[in-house]
């Protein structure tokens, strides 16, 4: 793991008056080493499988910290379950979510980004951040 991530993580913990622990470090390391979209239980299961004992409360507190300091992002879908993904060294992208399977498909569209920027500018605004989610259904081939 890059030294700068570790220093930023330790600084974030310090600002929040939280101790640096192996459990918190393992959660950060999980995101640095894994692409994808994971809920809290996925992360706990992965860590437990790798002999790291972590509570749900610690996991959620650490996830909140990682979101607050832009190490990962949080996405809540229609099922109400929060999913998290790595934001470290990650390019902006949007999501399509299959309503049948729950599969999350990442995509990038410069055209959509430009349209959003133009609309905001026309209305006198600047986009600071956005979440673009398309809920889709597979087209059946006849």
Main attributes?
two-stranded antiparallel ribbon; 3-stranded mixed sheet; alpha+beta; Dna Ligase, domain 1; 5 helices; single chain; 142 residues; Arc Repressor Mutant, subunit A
How many independent structural domains? 2
CATH class identity of the largest domain: Mainly Alpha
Element pattern in H and E: HHHHEEEEHE
Query: How helix-rich are the residues, as a percent range?
Result: 40-55%
Termini, distance in Å?
49 Å
**Largest sheet entry:** 3 strands, mixed
The 3D shape can be described as globular
Annotated CATH topology of the largest domain: Arc Repressor Mutant, subunit A
Report the portion of residues in β strands: 15-25%
Per DSSP E runs of 2 or more residues, the count of β-strands stands at: 5
Radius of gyration: 18 Å
Arithmetic mean of pLDDT = 91
For the largest sheet, list the strands in their spatial order: 4-3-5
CATH architecture group name of the largest domain: Orthogonal Bundle
Low-confidence stretches: none
Structure description:
- By secondary structure, the protein is α+β, with helices and mostly antiparallel strands.
- The protein has two domains: 84 residues, Winged helix-like DNA-binding domain superfamily/Winged helix DNA-binding domain (Arc Repressor Mutant, subunit A); 43 residues, Ferric-uptake regulator, C-terminal dimerisarion domain (Dna Ligase, domain 1, 2-Layer Sandwich), CATH 3.30.1490.
- The chain has five helices and five strands.
- The strands form two sheets. Strands 4-3-5 form a three-stranded mixed beta sheet, with no helix packed on it. The protein has a two-stranded antiparallel ribbon with strand order 1-2.
- The relative contact order is 0.12.
- The mean pLDDT is 91.
